[in-house]
């Protein structure tokens, strides 16, 4: 399963472990019981666990995703991963992150380039986030300027490589925040749900909201009952 995001990005399901029934049986093992098929009683148990904040059963189901996103999205995401290990009630967040590195690879760089109709204004009453869309004419101007800036960086990057400069230093010429990077993110269902709660909010950066919506589509397919209950709390 692969869902395209932004102009060149995507979220791809690599692997997963478990189902809604995994959550149920992780909880029922306390009483040496097990369900073979998801019943109405099991659904009520998932609802109870989510409502009462009994989090450990939700950490026995896992998703593994490959994500291709601009660096500005990846670094905001990474701050969440680091911080999620400390939010109340999780214990161990059960997450792993492995990212491609331009110390080792020199594949053709790709950059996020908003179209003329995607540039947003600064918010009126906040130091972060964004406001409404600006005019297409002004947006088109800044799309062109970003394209020119990116092309200049690419030219200098390629010239440095051609002159024998090592990749880990040549990458300094690449415009950073729009540069696409690729990583594997493995997370427990609880941790993924917490990410979605945070990044589907209206005040989250729009670009990371788009990635969160893609992940929501994937996890709802795999864990429909559990995701609905965790995100409704």
TrEMBL record:
InterPro entries: Thymidylate_synthase_ThyX, Thymidylate_synthase_ThyX_sf. GO terms for biological process: methylation. The keyword rRNA processing does not apply. It is an enzyme of class 2 (transferase). The keyword Transferase applies. It comes from the Bacteria. Its EC number is 2.1.1.148. This is FAD-dependent thymidylate synthase. It comes from Paenibacillus tianjinensis. The lineage of its organism: Bacteria, Bacillati, Bacillota, Bacilli, Bacillales.
């Amino acid at each position: 399963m692969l869902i395209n995001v932004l102009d060149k990005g995507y979220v791809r399901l690599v692997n997963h472990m478990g189902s809604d029934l995994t959550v149920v049986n992780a909880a029922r093992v306390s009483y040496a019981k097990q369900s073979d098929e998801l019943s109405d009683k099991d659904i009520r148990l998932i609802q109870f666990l989510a409502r009462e904040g009994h989090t450990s059963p939700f950490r026995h189901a896992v998703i593994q995703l490959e994500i291709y996103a601009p660096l500005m999205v990846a670094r905001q995401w990474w701050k969440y991963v680091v911080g999620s290990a400390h939010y109340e009630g999780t214990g161990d967040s059960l997450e792993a992150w492995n990212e491609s590195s331009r110390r080792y690879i020199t594949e053709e760089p790709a950059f996020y380039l908003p179209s003329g109709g995607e540039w947003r204004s600064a918010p009126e009453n906040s130091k972060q986030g964004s406001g409404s869309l600006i005019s297409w004419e002004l947006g088109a101007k800044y799309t062109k300027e970003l394209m020119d800036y990116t092309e200049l960086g690419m030219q200098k990057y390629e010239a440095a490589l051609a002159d024998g400069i090592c990749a880990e230093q040549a990458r300094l010429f690449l415009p950073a925040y729009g540069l696409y990077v690729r990583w594997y993110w493995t997370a427990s269902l609880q941790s993924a749900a917490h990410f979605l709660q945070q990044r589907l909010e209206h005040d989250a950066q729009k670009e990371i909201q788009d990635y969160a919506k893609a992940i929501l589509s994937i996890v709802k397919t795999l864990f429909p009952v559990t995701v609905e209950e965790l995100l409704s709390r």
